[in-house]
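Renewal narrative, Specific Aim 1. Our central claim is that a sequence can be written position by position from structural information alone. The example that follows is taken directly from our test logs and has not been curated for this report. It begins with the structure tokens describing the chain, in the order in which they were read.
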């Protein structure tokens, strides 16, 4: 279940990101490990996320998706493995909040806990 979407104007925000291009049907397999990798890189540098994780989709092809998994941060990070300094760009967006249960979240991104 999700809350009613709202149209918002966001500000550009620095982020730690991992860029991925994957087959559309492999999305669930890469999310959990990607989130763990992001969290580990931030923890190793003593940096806390300033908000929830996100995906920033660059292209959504019929068979492959090109996107970034990211978390907003306040301080710059040093690149570590696939984790790089990026940015969640300013834009007008539809924003909603997921009201999923813990079981639903776990099944949506296996290995993310």
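The sequence written for that structure reads:
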């Amino acid at each position: 279940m999700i809350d009613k979407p709202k149209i918002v104007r966001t500000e550009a925000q620095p982020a730690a990101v991992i860029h991925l291009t994957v087959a559309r049907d492999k999305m669930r397999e890469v999310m959990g490990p990607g989130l763990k990798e992001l969290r580990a890189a931030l923890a190793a540098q003593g940096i806390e996320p300033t908000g929830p994780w996100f995906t920033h989709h660059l292209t959504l092809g019929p068979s492959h998706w090109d996107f970034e998994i990211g978390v907003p941060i306040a301080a710059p990070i040093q690149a570590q493995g696939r984790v790089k300094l990026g940015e969640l760009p300013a834009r007008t967006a539809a924003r909603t909040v997921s009201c999923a249960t813990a079981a639903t979240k776990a099944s949506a991104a296996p290995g993310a806990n």
